[in-house]
Amino acid sequence: MTSISHGKRPSHPIALAQLFGMRFLCLVLPALPALVQCTPSGLSIDESFMPAPMHNKSAALYIHINNGTDELRVLTAVSSPIATSVEVHETVQEDGLMKMQRLSLLALPPRSITVMEPGGLHIMLKDLDRLPVSGDEIELTLHFQNRTTMTIRVPVVSPETVLE
Ligand SMILES: [Cu+2]
């Protein structure tokens, strides 16, 4: 399961968020961006996981992005504090070979869930500053075309779990 991370914040704003919802909090606390990360309303991450990679040159992770809005949303970039670069890839078959292709944009149609899974769409972290191991959490920020961002924590799982 995935929880949307809003960074480090004291318990008081969390209680406020539960009472009034994040949208309200985003309105009343514009001066506290470090405490409260306003996420694009109507978007959520239903699932996320990173199979523990073999080495720190590259690592794939998978998320399910739920666009519950009536509008097209576009993922324009992804970043992580532990990786030099992060790309969205799709896996395509070419002359019988599986190849990864970089996507510069990922369209998220209205009222849809975009599913990433092994052998298909995925997010690729490159040149990681350490080797993620099972039990870790990777911070990942999604950047959208409407200039909103969403930061999540992706659990690192053992590769065997993914194959089941
Ligand atoms: Cu890839």
Describe this structure in words.
It is a single chain. Helix content is 14%, strand content 46%. By secondary structure, the protein is mainly beta. The protein has two domains: 1-38, no CATH class; 39-163, PCu(A)C copper chaperone (Immunoglobulin-like). Strands 1, 2, 3, 4, 5, 6, 7, 8, 9 and 10 form a ten-stranded mixed beta sheet that branches. The longest helix is centred in the first third of the chain and has 18 residues, at 11-28. The chain is globular. It starts with 10 loop residues before the first helix and ends with a helix. Bound molecules: copper (II) ion.
Given helix and strand content, the structural type is mainly beta
Would you tell me the overall average pLDDT?
Answer: 82
Share of residues in helices: 10-25%
How many domain modules? 2
- Total helical elements: 2
The CATH superfamily of the largest domain bears the name: PCu(A)C copper chaperone
- Which residues form runs of ≥5 with pLDDT under 50? 1-38
CATH topology of the largest domain: Immunoglobulin-like
Annotation, overall tally of beta strands: 10
Q: β content, as a range?
A: over 45%
Order of helices and strands: HEEEEEEEEEEH
- Overall shape: it is globular
Bound compounds: copper (II) ion
Q: What is the name of the CATH architecture of the largest domain?
A: Sandwich
Alpha carbon gyration radius: 17 Å
> Which CATH C-level class of the largest domain is it?
Mainly Beta
